[in-house]
Amino acid sequence: MAMSKGEKGRIIAHVLAGVVIILKGVTKWEDHHAVLGSFFLLLGLLLVAASVWHHQLSRWIKNFDVLVFAIEALVLGLIAYLYYQEGKQGLPWVYGLTSVGYLILMVIFSRRGVVSKARVNHE
Fold first, then answer.
1. For residues 48 and 97, what is the distance between their CA atoms, to the nearest angstrom?
2. What does the pLDDT profile of the chain (123 residues) look like in tens digits?
3. What values do phi and psi take at 87, rounded to 5?
4. Among the residues of the chain, which ranges form H helices?
5. Which of 27, 31, 39, 82 has the fewest C-beta atoms under 10 angstroms from its C-beta?
6. Which residue, 54, 52, 77, 74, is CA-closest to 64?
């Protein structure tokens, strides 16, 4: 079954967020912050895996995209805070605004009651 343009966009957004989180995990791991690095690596890998199996998971988890956008927004906000603590100038703003963008997407999708085509076809 072909995916809609919107569904492809959501999957790409989830994959990109997952990759960014994985990269932050690698950076933290290299800086000898094993617990935080492992947390980011695991979460990033889970987000990428959830994106790969988006079609199947959205059948079983109501508001799957809302849940994933919420997790991504929280983690990207945490990354913004960590960059701020490290004394970075621009990166906290970029990650902070991205986090706000994901929160806005979460609200939009939760208010629309977006249900993927897979879930509609499954029922």
1. 21
2. 567 777 788 888 889 999 999 999 999 999 999 999 999 999 999 999 988 888 788 888 888 888 999 999 999 999 999 999 999 999 999 999 999 999 998 999 888 774 444 455 555
3. 85, 15
4. 5-30, 34-52, 54-60, 64-85, 91-112, 117-122
5. 31
6. 54
